[in-house]
Amino acid sequence: MQPKQDKIQGSAPTAAVPFYNDPKKRSILFQIATLLMVGLLAYYLISNTLANVEKQSIATGFGFFEKEAAFEIGESPIRYSAADTYGRALVVGFLNTLIVSFVGIVLTVILGTLVGIARLSSNWLISKIAAVYIEVLQDIPVLLQLFFWYAFFYNVLPSPRQAMNPIMGVFLSNRGLVFAVPEAHPVFKYMAIAIVLAGVAIYFLRRWARERQARTGQPFPIFRVSLALMIGLPLMAWAFGGAPTAMNVPVLIGFNFIGGTNISPEFTALLLGLILYTAAFVAEVVRAGIQSVSKGQTEAAMSLGLRPSRVLNLVILPQALRVIIPPLTSQMLNLTKNSSLAVAIGYPDFVSVAGTTINQTGQAIEGVALMMIVYLTLSLLTSAFMNWYNKKMALVER
To answer: Domain 86-183+246-393 falls in which CATH fold?
Structure first.
């Protein structure tokens, strides 16, 4: 017998793949080419802009911040006059935008949630009213709604001499809502500190109450204790500070009110328009989130004897939040960006103040860049907070 000779068959050498047929290398090449094109376009635009600015002898930079603004701003949360600088004027515009956005977002979420829940109500009338609100307000452009409310306050409400006076110290006219406020006193600073401390205490108290209930099964009256802290601590600070009661009451002098504080028609029209418009979309987001929770969850909770309000707060909404939060974030961003329409009704937001600054200084590039930075910053901060809240509220399987 002849020994078997093993035949070793080697695999044929693989031919080198050309780089244009390799997906990985081709994708890198495309990215480099795209980066070069974007860089060349940016270089062209920037160099062309700088050349034109130099040719027309237009000043550049942000040195105008220190120059006198020489224009008044109708509403300002901080002290401001025409003798102040452009920098301070822009700060006033930014604060006005921030106030409108923050107050608008809070009230929009509350109203949108209530309307979304009402849309699913078993009461026919409540459900249809919510449906009509959603359909009508969604289909009317927000700018038209701003014009409507602005015209309403100026044409329907009476002049200051015939102002409505529903309760003592409160006047409503086409100049806005004017009401009495406490006279300035140092104790109010300590009351504000007391409110912040109460909020911190409530936060840790809620965490402790949840851990205690998970450990022992015994509930803690967190709502009543939180309410007592939020009211009691500022009241204690007010009492120990001398319990001041002096009020700054508005008085009609000439054609307007002097004293108190005033909520202008421009601010009210802007806030109402943004809230009512955006809340219609938030209501649909809330409705979709609630309907995403299976009916079995509701039936199981009802079988335990829970009241409908407890079922909504403890079972339905916590599960619906994972569906609600992402589109809700988009609506918050829309409200913040839509606040730039304030210039159409004369409210001095950041866009309005920056536009006046551009007209007076001629530095359009810097002004537009500031607008972009402000709205980009507000949007990123809102998104970051909502992303954090979304992760915090996510359902974790154990």
So the answer is: MetI-like fold (1.10.3720)
Beta-strand runs (E) in 141-250: 170-173, 176-179, 181-182, 247-248
Which residues, in sequence order, are CB contacts of 98 under 8 Å at separation 6+?
378
Rg (CA), the chain: 30
Report the C-alpha dihedral over residues 392, 393, 394, 398, rounded to 10 degrees: 90
Residue whose structure tokens are 């809502």: 177
Q: In the predicted model, what is the mean pLDDT of the chain?
A: 85
- Whole-structure pTM value: 0.79
Whole-angstrom CA distances from 357 to 71, 354, 378 are 9, 5, 21
Residue 243 burial (10 A CB sphere; 0-12, 13-18, 19+): exposed
State in Å, rounded, how far the first CA of the chain is from the last one. Answer: 69
Task: Decide if pLDDT at 349 tops 60.
Answer: yes
- 198-227 tens-digit pLDDT: 999 998 998 898 888 888 878 888 888 899
DSSP letter at 194 equals H
- What lies within 8 Å, CB to CB, of 22 at 6+ separation is none
259-276 tens-digit pLDDT: 888 888 899 999 999 999
Per-residue pLDDT tens over the stretch 242-261: 888 888 888 888 778 888 88
Chain centre distance of CA 123:
32
What are the sequence ranges of the domains in the chain?
Answer: 86-183+246-393
Count Cβ neighbours within 10 Å for each residue of 273-306 and write b for 16 or more, e otherwise: bbbbbbbbbbbbbbbebbeebeeeebeebeeeeb
| Crossing angle of helices 187-216 and 222-240, rounded to 10° | 160
Strands (E), the chain: 170-173, 176-179, 181-182, 247-248, 251-253, 256-258, 261-263
Q: Confidence class of residue 132 from pLDDT cuts 50, 70 and 90?
A: very high
Is residue 176 left, alpha or beta, with left meaning phi > 0 and alpha meaning psi from -120 to 50?
A: left
* Local confidence band at 8 (pLDDT 50, 70, 90 cut-offs): very low
Residue 68 structure tokens: 């006198």
